[in-house]
Amino acid sequence: MTTPADAADPTDALSAVPAESGRRAATVPGRLRFFYGPMDCGKSTLALQIDHNHARQGRVGLLLVRFDRSGSPRISTRIGLARQAIELDETTDVRGLVRAQWAAGRRVDYLIVDEAQFLNEGQVEQLAELADLAHLDVYCFGIATDFRGRLFPGAQRLFEVADELQAVQVEVLCWCGSPGRFNGRVVNGSLVRAGDTVLVADTTAGDGSPSEEEGGPNNEATTTVRYQVLCRRHFRSGDLGPIPAAHGQLTLA
Ligand SMILES: [Zn+2]
Description:
InterPro entries: P-loop_NTPase, Thymidine_kinase. This is Thymidine kinase. Residues 1-20, 202-222 are annotated as: Disordered. By secondary structure, the protein is an alpha/beta fold. It has a domain at 10-167: P-loop containing nucleotide triphosphate hydrolases (Rossmann fold). Helices cover 23% and strands 17% of the residues. It has a 6-stranded parallel sheet with strand order 3-2-4-5-1-6, sandwiched between helices. It has a 3-stranded antiparallel sheet with strand order 8-7-9. Helix 4 (121-133) packs parallel to helix 5. The model is unreliable at 1-24, 70-77 and 200-220 (pLDDT under 50). The structure holds zinc ion (ZN). Zinc ion (ZN) binds next to helix 6.
């Protein structure tokens, strides 16, 4: 057979062992890592950086993002991750995605999953299986808690099963200067700590079902929803600070 001299041997494509970094023993399980932090803390940037570092070593990765219509488009679009990411929905079997790559003759050494808080438990299990049995390194990035201050289901399962947990805290501060740990949902200027989670979590795949009430894409522009990072004290008190509509705040109208 003839292959371009500079290309990786395509016959290695179906092997679990990476071609270029072949010394990496196939018997070493991959690791499942969860990098978590408030929104805008640089998780997606870190995700791309990790991807870049691996790619430079000749490793091949898949970039995945859990689709959400919720209200954090800045995370996924600001740095253009979406253009090269595969969107997962509620029913996606991540193992199937990897197998499809193998079947197409492509190697997969690692996975990068953005918006991992939106994964369901089963998908987190699938990632763990891929780490254990397919020796993939899995890097998950996401927000830990929702606007109520409760763990997202995907984040919770990752906290339970990941090999490594790493808080990403890149200078995301509350207006008071304290570290921001909570993603407050601000509806018409007031902090909302209870209520429907559809805006952030249970956005089932778009199957023509009516849009959610508040902030739904087809809603009248009378309700504005944005998110603001707050410290625990101000998350609890609901004090949004002197300039609640600070620069670049996310607004769903
Ligand atoms: Zn504060």
